[in-house]
Each structure stands twice: as structure tokens, then as C-alpha cells.
Amino acid sequence: MASVEAAAEHERILREIESTDTNCIGPTLRSVYDGQEHGFFMEKLDARIRNHDREIEKMCNHHFQGFVDSITELLKVRGEALKLKSQVTETNRHLQEDGKELLTSMEELQAVPDPAEKHRVHHRQTHALPPSPGDVQPTTGANEGQKVLPGAADAGAAGADLPARAGQYRFCAIMTQNIPKLRDQIRDTAMAQLRDFLESIRKHSDKIGETAMRQAQLQRSIDSSVPAHPRLPVGRRGRKGPSATAETVGAVTQNGGSPFSEQDSGILDGDEEDEVPGAQELVDFSPVYRCFHIYTVLGLHDEFENYYRKQRRKQARLVLQPHSNMHETLEGYRRYFNHIVGFFVVEDHVLHTTHGLVNRAYVEELWELALSKITAALRTHSSYCDDPDLVLDLKNLIVIFADTLQGYGFPVSQLFDMLLEMREQYSEILLKRWNITFRQALDQDNFSPIPVSTEEEFRHYTALFPLHDPELDKMPFPKKLPFSEFVPKVYCQLKEFIYACLKYSEDLHLSSTEVDDMIRKSTNLLLTRTLSHCLHYGIKKKNVGLAELVQVIINSTHLEHSCGFLEEFISNITNVPLDTVSATRLYGPSTFKDASHAAEAEIYASLNAKIDQFLQLADYDWMAPAPGGGASEVSDYLIDLIAFLRSTFSVFTNLPGKVAQTACMSACKHISTSLLQLLLDPELRQVSLGGLHQLHTDVQECESFARAGPVAGFQGDTLLLAFSDLRQLLDLFTQWDWSTYLADYGKPSCKYLRVNPHTALTLLEKMRETGKKNMILAQLRKTDRDRQKLIDTVIKQLRNLISQQ
Questions:
Q1: What is the pLDDT of residue 127?
Q2: Where does this protein have compositionally biased stretches of type Polar residues (predicted)?
Q3: Least confident of 133-147, 488-502, 771-785
Q4: What sections of 526-656 are H helices per DSSP?
């Protein structure tokens, strides 16, 4: 009790240290040194520190990917910034050089005083204007389609400032008329390409998503196999501007080769320069960039933004609509997830490579809508599944799906919450499968001890089931294990169930304590519900005999003793010590004890039913005359009954002592009670003294059986007490000792203390009926008349005795 109080006090001190400011920690530590168990407190403190270290490590591992992505982005930004700096410097140098000629021309023009000369100089400078209308038309016809799109900005600018610069020229008026048509043509061409792009990514979004999820799965396998290795960036890669295009416009690469390229930058291993591209790099986004740029130049930014978002929302609703038969195979779920991942990979790339087309609020709104529909669809379709392997594969697929989108910055906590909900369904499916497994093991069991003839066989079974019996180890071969084949099968299946629960708990971002608690709760359901029902099913089967019931008790006892090993097994695979305060204990001992008790009750009932079958063969002659002096013979049915009981109780040697003793006592009491009921049967109206002597002889045989000790463990004549009621009743009538009974009735020292006056009265009235019949036959025989008077007198006294109670 003192150690428990000290442990509780240390736990309180640790909580106070964790929650108290360091400036006020002195009094807390003082209380530790005032105690006498410094070493135990230091062990508790070290354990708490290790626990916090594990939590810190878990948190660091959880946020490590984001840190690596941030560093990757910074490295890429640094390189791009250096490139931009050099480009700006070079552009400025070219601008300065090109502007020198213009500045020189303007200075010459300003220095000329003569207007005519100034006109000639001005005419010479007009050659810097755009070409004449005759030159514009062939160029427009030769640059149809994509080639005309980069000139949209120039056309817009020319249309705005050309009349102001050279409005007095005729060809400028012609250009001013053609520029709006050119704008419309460029805008329509760009919009057509955008529609093709949207249709293409809708068609190939599953391939984009498949690549992204395969990439995330590959990264997970790398992390698990080489935990100390630097993590490769998963999800969003180096952003490329509008110039970053694939080999095809608006489509996924179709050459069947690897979609990875060496154009990206990231965290590399050693001196290698190879990189793993993001799934978004399989798509050519140039139609979006061009159309967005053109509409922005034309002042139609809002129109293009609304159109793009509207079309993508429609595509999102189509992507989020699952197929009706999605739940039938894992491939159906995989295609569903691939389309969703592909959709959001594209949106995430557009968000980070354009300015104003989509924003974070829009993407988050789409993701919230998707999350609600995804979770609803998964709850609905997963509820149809009754295969635990499919549910486990689906869980792993959802984890990869969540990790993939988390790598792109989308919150996925709701998906993991839904996986915890699915764990309940997974447990129920497991329970149904293991119920079938347990019943098959029970039906196939022969309910006999396992014979082993070699050391190899013995080691085989002891490897399957923890058996520690020094006496059994010393026995020579061949020998028998006390339990049947059912025990090692059940123990192995319990471990398989625990492994199945552990597999589902992996990668759910749960602590070791939470995993341990989930496994223990599921195992308790398996023990208390599934296995318990199977054991009771085996006990209640019609063809189960006493030997089988005895073996059920032995099996349950050994399974009960193995629960400690199951506790240790769970602690080893979850790394949670058994002495943890919050650890849930297994209910196995109580489950197997209940099964043993049920089997014991069934043994008692079955044994009594067998006794009743023998008693049905009893054929007493209740009107037999009194024996002349020779002893009566024991009834044949009773000889067979006692032989059966001896053989039955010999099988009880492997049972716990109390069970065998209780069964033996129950059988003897049942025999005594049944014989008394035969005697007091209302249909039996007449009983002679000769019939009582025959019953007396049978009771003596039963007492001899009890006195011989068929089951070890009884002290003295304890088993004889089962027949004491019947023995005293028969002694009272055969010895006709009514004076003693009536005189000592109610006294603790009464010889016939267990004889109830109601029972005695009932039996005496049956004897009086027999006497009346004999008197009619014997006419006026004096002895019969005296005996009949004595019976009448005793009956009156018994009635008076009953009335006085």
C-alpha cells in the first residue's frame, strides 16, 4: 500500500513539474528529497522524459516534410532570384544601349532650326513605326492559330497608342480597323485551346492522380526502409512559369515511359543531379497561361476568372460522384481517388503559378466540398464491405490518398477521423470472420488430450501454445498434453487477430498508447463476445458427452492461464509496458472462467440426466412382505448406476478438485432426492414395510459407494451427508422408533433431526392404506389390528405436531 501511495505521489509531482513555472519548482523538488524513494522517483522521471522525447520525435517527423518542402522552395527561389537579377541587369543594359540612338535622334531633331529640314528628319524617323497595311495582312494570314497569340499584347498596345503617334497616316487607319478583329480572333483561339485543355485534364486526371499517389507511396517506402535518409520532396515541386510546357498541349504524356524529368530542383542525395518531378509537370498548362494573359490584356480578367472557376466546379462535381459499384473492388476506390488527386494537383499548380486566376479561399472551398462528399461516399460504400482484407487495403489506400494531398498543402484530418470510424466496422468484420474460425476449430476438435510421441512434436505444440508443466516435462515419451487441439488453434488465432488489429492501426498517426488501447479493446470484444459465444455453443451441443465437457473445462483452464502471455505479446508489439496506469486489461480470465462454470453446470445437469435414465429402470415392489430375516438384494439398476458413476468419476482426475467434488456431491444428492421422490410419489398410494426394506438395502449400497471415496478430496464422511435425509427416514420406519422421534423432535441432539414431520406423515398414511387392505384380507388378526391402531395413533400425534409448528 505504501508503494502505491508513493507512486501516486510521484505521479502528482511529475504533473506539477510539467505544469508549473520553473521559478516555482523548488518546493516541488523539496517534497521529493523529503521522501525516502529518490531512486524510484528518478526512474519515473526518466520514463516520463523518454515518453516526451518520443512525442517530440513524433511531432518532428510529422512536420519534417513541410520543413523540407520549405527549404526546397527557398533553394529554388534563390536560383530563380539570381536568374531574375541577371536578366534585369541584362535588359537594363540593352535598354540603355538601344535608347542611345533614339536620344541622339531626338537631340538632332531639336537642334535643327529650319522647319523644312525638321520635316525631312521627322520623315526619316517614321521608318521606326509598324509596317504598312500591305505588309500586315500577309503576316496575319501566315500566323494563324497559336503563332498569333503572343502578339495579343502588341496588338492591344498598338490599337491604343497608334492613332496618337501616327494618326495622320492612312495605313494607320487601316490597322486601327483590323486590330479589333485580330483581338477577337486571338481571344477565340485562346478560348478554344482552353476548352480543349479542360476537356483533356478531365479525361486524364486519373493518370495525373495515379502518378502523384505512386510518388507518395514511393516516398513512404523510402522513408520506412531508410529512416535516416533525407526525405525527397513529395507533392508540390518547383513551380515553372508559363514557359514550362510538356511535349503535348493540354494533355498527359502518352508515350508510356517514365514521366519523371531532370528539369526540376530539390533535395538530392550526394552528388546526384537526377530529380523526381511532380505529377503536375506531366501537363502543359500553357493554354491556361496564354488565355489568362490575353484576357487580362484585353481587360476581361473577371470574365475569364469566372468562366474558369465555373467550369472547374462542374468538373469537381463529376469527379466527386462515385460509381455505384465502387465498393466491389479496390480498383474502383483507386480510380475514384486518382481522379480527385489529379483534379486538386492541377488546381494547386494553377494557384501557385498564376496571380489572380484562383486564390486560396477558392481552393479551400473546393476542398471542403470534396471532403464532405468523399467522407460521405466512403462511409456509404465501405458499409457494404464484409471482407476484412478489402477494408484493410482500402484503409492503406486512403492513407496514401491523404498523404498525397497533405503533401500539396490540403488538410486531411477529417480523413483520418473517418479511418478511426471505419476501425469499428473493421473490428466487427474481423469478429464475424473469427467467429467462423472458432466454430470450425470447435467442430473439428476431438475433445481428447493431444498425444505426443517425440520431442519434435512436443516442441511443436509448446511453440504454438505456452505450456509450462515441470511434471509433464519429466514424463517419458509417449505422453499426452492435457488439452486438446482446440487450445493451440485458439491461441494462435488470438495472436492473428491482434496482428490484424495492429495492421489497421499503422500509419494513422496514433501514439503507441492509443494503438495499444485500440488493440486491447478489440481483443476484449473477441474474447467476451465471439469466443465466449463459441464456447457456450460447443457446451450446449446435443452430442456433447461428459468426457467432452470435462475436456472443455480443462481447455478453458489452460486458455485462462495463457492470458498473461497474450498481455505480454500485445505489450511487445506496441512497445507499451504492462505496468502502464492507463493500460486496459484483457477480460480473458473472466471469459474462460465463465465458460468453465457453464461446462461445470452442464456436467452436473448431464450427470443428473444420466442418473434419471437409470432410475427409470427402477421397479420396486412396494407391496412386498417384510423379509423373514435374510437381507434383501441390491437392485440391478442401482448396480449399473454405481458402475457408471465409478467410470465417470475416474475421468474427472484431470479436473480441478472442487469441480470433481461438486459433481460427485451433486450426483449423490440427486440420487437421494430421486429415491425419496419415488417413495413420496402421489400416484404411489400404498407402501409396505417390505418395500421400505428393499429401498433401505439400495441406500446402503449407495452409502458404501460414497464411503469408498469415488473422488479424492472429501474429508471424513462428508459425502454420506447427501443420503442423510433418506437414511434417517428409512431408519425411522424400519426400526419403528416413533417414541424417540416424537420425544426428541425439535432438539439439536435428535436422532432423526433431518426427518420432516410432513414427509413422515405422508409415508405413514400410505402404510395405513396398506394395513387396511391387509386387515380385510386377514379378517381379525390381532397383530395387524394392533399395528393399525399404532399407526393411527402416530398419525394423530404427527398431525398435532404439525399443527403446533
A1: 46
A2: 251-262
A3: 133-147
A4: 532-540, 546-561, 563-574, 588-615, 636-651
Q: CB neighbours of 498 closer than 8 A, spacing ≥ 6?
A: 519, 523, 566, 569, 570, 573
Residue 346 CA to chain centroid, in angstroms?
35
Residue 599's closest CA among 442, 764, 367? 442
Residue that wins the pLDDT comparison between 352 and 173: 352
Question: Which of 213, 235, 226, 261 minimizes the C-alpha distance to 65?
Answer: 235
Helix (H) or strand (E) holding 481: strand 479-481
Q: Residue 146 pLDDT more than 70?
A: no
Distance CA 763, CA 725 (A): 14
Q: Which residues pair with 481 in a beta bridge?
A: 450
In angstroms, rounded to a whole number, what is the distance separating the alpha carbons of residues 559 and 328?
38
479 phi, psi to nearest 5 deg: -145, 175
Categorise residue 575: left if φ over 0, alpha if ψ from -120 to 50, beta otherwise: left
Q: What angle do CA 590, 596, 597 make, to 5 degrees?
A: 90
Are the C-beta atoms of residues 679 and 695 closer than 8 Å to each other?
Answer: yes
Structural contact between residues 513 and 581, judged by C-beta atoms closer than 8 angstroms: no
pTM here is: 0.65
Looking up cell 495515379 gives 210
Q: How far apart are CA 521 and CA 525, in angstroms?
A: 6
Instruction: Give the model's confidence band at 275: pLDDT under 50 very low, under 70 low, under 90 confident, else very high.
Output: very low
pLDDT at 249 over 90: no
Q: Hey, what's the torsion of the CAs at 777, 783, 786, 791, to 10 degrees?
A: -70
What size, in residues, is the chain? Answer: 805
Interatomic CA distance for residues 585 and 590, integer angstroms: 11
**Beta bridge partners of residue 450, listed in sequence order:** 481
Pairing label, strands 450-452, 479-481: antiparallel
For 627-677, the pLDDT digits (tens) are: 765 567 888 999 999 999 888 888 777 777 688 888 888 899 999 999 989
**Contact present, 337 and 209 (Cβ < 8 Å):** yes
The torsion angle over the Cα atoms of residues 375, 379, 381 and 385, rounded to 10 degrees, is 140
Predicted local confidence at residue 138, as pLDDT: 34
